[in-house]
Amino acid sequence: MKNIFIKKKIGKKVRILAGVLCLSVLLSGTEIAWASKLTDAKDAKAEAEEDLSETQSEISALKAQEAALQAEIDALDDELAILIADMNILSQEITDKTAELEQVTADLAAAEEKQAEQYENMKLRIKYMYENGNSAIYDAILGSTSMADMLNRVEYVNDVYAYDRNLLTEYQNTVEEVATLKSTVETEKAEMEAMQSEYEAQEEELNSMLASKESELQSKDSLLASAKEKAAKYQATIEAQNKIIQEEQKKAEEAAKKKAAEEAAKKAAEEAAKKTSSDSTSSSSSSSSSSSSSSESSSSSSSSSSAAVSGTGSSVVSYACQFIGNPYVWGGTSLTDGADCSGFVMSVYAHFGVSLPHSSAAMRGCGTGVSYSDAVAGDIICYSGHVAIYMGNGQIVHAQSAATGITTSSATYRTIVAVRRVI
Fold it and tell me: Between 64 and 124, where is the model more confident?
């Protein structure tokens, strides 16, 4: 009986141990499955975070490109606005010059008509004198009533001849002056019309560049929208994997607690089976490491020096006037062999250590702006598509055109758009 009781008791303990072992195996399998799912979630999260980081870098680059493109578009818009303003000024100047040319043409026709009329009158008198010889003088003498009357009549005849000659000479001079003025006005109008054609070409080029930049900006917008959409998907993936990780970690914690309880039960069963008590403790130690990072910053400083500026406004004018009569050459910068308007101004000021751009439009932004009423010798007078050096007393020296070369003119011969002081 005793042996049977012992066997039953042992069998009961064996069944308990077997149950505990089966439960442990089951829990271990479940733990492995949870661990695998947690690892997969962490891997998916890490991959999504890497993709998100790359996409955010792409977004930053696209935003920087967009900002650069917008800056270019703004600069082109400003340039186009200045060009349109210049075109408007030039258009009004051409209108005024056309009216002036019409008036000069009419004046020339009237002067030529007067000259022809006077010439015909003079021919008639000459014919009369030829046909009648000196009878006019004889008639004047014989018809006089006194010596004083005779002298008056003779003097009158001579005065008529002198008047005819003087009047004809005056009309001839007037015709020459008006013809010269007409030629000058025609030349100035032709130059303005050529400038207008150049402006129109520049406007077309600027509009084309603007269209290209705006198209490129739209393309960047599309790429940016696509990148933001990808970033949103990656962010959603990260959030979903975070949720899975939290759930799996919670399950793992619950399983760990359950496993700890089962292990305690297992130990109790083993103690009961062996009738021994043993305590086993396990300890784990963890070590933590800390790292510190340091950043270095560096700064650089740059210094710039500008060439010393020598001379005064009057010395600039004196130097510039040495080249009056030299040729105008489009795009040229030689004060002796030929320069255009901005090349002339640039080369004159370069002699005094002042660096200026080879562009009439760019010179409007150089130096300090002053009003025309405050202009002094050496200031730069800016027109639509043209620049000159102010001489004082309402006069300028400039490379005017291929027809006139480097010459002097009235400062107000065209509409003044700016006055810049650079020395």
Answer: 64
Q: Report the predicted TM-score, pTM, of the whole model to 2 decimal places.
A: 0.53
Q: Are 398 and 360 in contact (CB under 8 A)?
A: no
* 12/19 Cα distance (integer angstroms): 11
Rounded Cα–Cα distance for residues 80 and 207 (Å)? 8
Q: Is the dihedral of CA 55, 57, 59, 65 positive or negative?
A: negative
> What pLDDT digit, counting tens, does each position of 323-344 carry?
999 999 999 999 999 999 999 9
Residues marked active site are found at: 341, 386, 398
Residue 203: count of CB within 10 angstroms of its CB? 15
The model's pLDDT over 398-408, given as tens digits with 9 standing for 90+, comes to 999 998 999 99
Residue pair 377/369 in contact by the 8 Å Cβ criterion: no
Euclidean distance between the first and final Cα of the chain, in Å?
Answer: 129
- Where do we find the tokens 């010269």? 180
Q: Which residue has the tokens 């300028």?
A: 396
Query: What backbone phi and psi angles, to 5 degrees, belong to 404?
Result: -105, -25
Antiparallel, parallel or unpaired: β 333-334 and 338-339: antiparallel
CA angle 50, 53, 57 (to 5 degrees): 140
CB 112 within 8 Å of CB 175: yes
Strand order in the sheet with 395-401: 368-369, 418-421, 380-383, 386-392, 395-401, 405-410
DSSP letters of 123-134?
HHHHHHHHHHTT
The beta-strand segments (E) located in 35-185 are none
Amino acid residing at 96: D
